[in-house]
Amino acid sequence: MKKFLVLVAAVCMAYTTAFAQTVKPFKEGDRAVFLGNSITDGGRYHSFIWLYYMTRFPNMPIRIFNGGIGGDTAYDMNKRLDGDIFSKNPTVLMVTFGMNDSGYYEYNGDNAKEFGEQKYQESIKNFQQMEKRFKELPHTRIVMTGTSPYDETAQIKDNTVFKKKNETIKRIIEYQRESAARNGWEFTDWNAPMVAINQELQQKDPSFTLCGNDRIHPDNDGHMVMAYLFLKAQGFAGKDVANMEINANKKQAVKAEGCTISNIKKIGKDISFDYLAEALPYPLDTIARGWGSKKSQAEVPFMEEMNTELLKVTGLKGQYKLLIDNQEIGTWDAADLAKGINLAAESKTPQYQQALAIMHLNEYRWELERTFREYAWCQFGFFQQKGLLFANDRKAIEVMDENVEKNMWLKGRRDLYSKMMFKEIRDAREQEMDVLVSKIYEINKPVVRKIILRKI
What we know:
Radius of gyration: 24 Å
Strand order of the largest sheet: 2-1-3-4-5
Distance between the termini: 31 Å
Number of helices: 15
Helix content: 40-55%
Structural class: alpha/beta
Shape: globular
Number of strands: 14
C-alpha cells in the first residue's frame, strides 16, 4: 500500500509540474464561493482547500462557501445566481460546470456525435447568459474552473462507459478557458491532470479511478487531488509549514524558516529548544467520511510539495528519542536527523493534534452547510418551477407532498425541508456555523513547543 501511495503522489507531481500560478491566492476577508453541480454540492474539495488556509494562514480569516446543487447544468446555475450565489456576496467566484451539461446515455446510441455537438452548443449558449451576469460584478474575481473528468478508461464492474462523453466536457472546458482570456478572468483545470493520473495508475490497476465508482463523483482521494491542484494553481507548491536546522555542537539555529527557534540548550546527552511555528501542519484525514465513501483523504498525499515541517539536526551520534512538550513522538538515528525528518508526517505531535481538532470542527461545519445545499435544491430544483421560490409556507409543503411519490430526489429531502423551511431553524444553523468558524480561528494559532532530543 505504501508503494502505491508513493506512486500516486509521484504521478500527481509529474503531471502538475508545469502548473504555473494561474489563480491568485485568497486574501484576508475573502468570501470565496464555489459554484457547481453535485461534485461541488456533496464533495469536500472546497472544505479541504479551506482547511489548508485555516492551518497555513492562522491569522488570515476567510470564508469559503459551497455553491453546488446536484444535477445542475449551466442553465440551472444561471437561474439561481441571484437567490443563491450572489446573495453570499462573493469576492471570489469559482465557476465549474460541464458534467451534466454534456449528457449521458445517448453517447452509446446511434447518433452519439450529433448528441455531443448538441449538448456542447446548449451548454455554451447557457453559459453565455451567466457570462453576461459575471461581467456585472466589478468587485468579484471570476475563476473559471474546468470540471473533474468523466473517467472513460477505468474498468469498473457493472458500469457501462458513456464513450466520448469526456471529449464533450473537454470542449466545454476549452470554451471556459477562452472566456477567461476574453474577460480577463482566471482559469484552472482539473480535467486534464486527473485524466493523466487515472490513465497512468490504471496501467498497474485497471480499476483505479479518482472519479468514484460511477466514473463521475470523486471519492475523498479524488477531492484531495482537486484541492491539491487548486492550491497548486494558487502557487503553494514548495511552500513549507516550517524548515528548521539545528547545529547541536554549536547550539545554534542554522535555519529557521516559517518559525522561531530559541533557548537552545545541551544538558548532558539531551539537546532541547523552543519552537514557535507560523503555521500548523495539514492534517490528512485517514477516515473515509461521507455517505458511500470508500477512500480517505489521505490516500493521495501531497506531503512532498505542500506539507513539510522539516526538523534537521546535525552534530549528533547514535539514536535519539524525540519528545515534544514531553510527549514521545518517535526514535531516529543521527543520520536520519541530519537529513531531516518531516514532523507534518507524524500524527503524534502536539501541533498535528491541534490541527486535527481544526479538521474535525471544519468537518462538522461542512455537515451543517450541506443541509443548506439540500434546502437550496428544494428551492431551485423544485419550488422555483412551481412559482413557490422561498414561499416556505403551508402551500409549499402541500405541493411538495403532492409530488414526492413521483420524484425520489424530492422525497429524500422532504423531511429536511420540513425543518429548514422555518427561518428560525436556518438562523440557528447559520449561527452554529459561525460559532464553529470562530472557534477554528481561535484555536488555530501555533504555540511555543518544547522540543527535546534525548540520546538512547
